[in-house]
Amino acid sequence: EDKVVQSPLSLVVHEGDTVTLNCSYEVTNFRSLLWYKQEKKAPTFLFMLTSSGIEKKSGRLSSILDKKELFSILNITATQTGDSAVYLCAASGGTSYGKLTFGQGTILTVHP
Amino acid sequence: DGGITQSPKYLFRKEGQNVTLSCEQNLNHDAMYWYRQDPGQGLRLIYYSQIVNDFQKGDIAEGYSVSREKKESFPLTVTSAQKNPTAFYLCASSRALRVGEQFFGPGTRLTVL
To answer: What is the pLDDT of chain A when averaged over all its residues?
Structure first.
């Protein structure tokens, strides 16, 4: 059975801290690893990673994939209160093409 | 503006009633998906469709039905056979079944009274 596990499940930090969110996966026919940010409603797309060892960056957010060890991390530097959200990791692949298997999410709370 | 719309935002229903959740996209995407989200759990796939008039069951299809008569529309019916329908329902689309990221609508929160 395809599985994606995120850790920690929740995290509380103060503005300016750096956080690292973890995502491990076991998915047959793996194609890509995606990160989304969810603030009460629609998840918004952050990154899609297909190649191992290549970091993707967008402002203070960055992510990298390790296909050998089957995990990805999402880093957020100089956190702001607006970063408070649920961060979802999803792996594409499985027995059905296009299927995304989601992790439970990490709830990040950033205090001023 | 291109995007995905879902309606209604909140929906209340009595036990034993069928309800239909709307999902429309104007992104010209071929593939569409329905997910269910429960507290403390990730999104779980209910149904997906790669093209008009075609759809496939996801991991938790029991008690749900869908149709795909138009490219833009992928409504989800929650039937009375669904044992625990109270949840947050998210619709998504992508350019094609294996291509690119999925874009999500704002969701419908269904509560069974």
So the answer is: 92
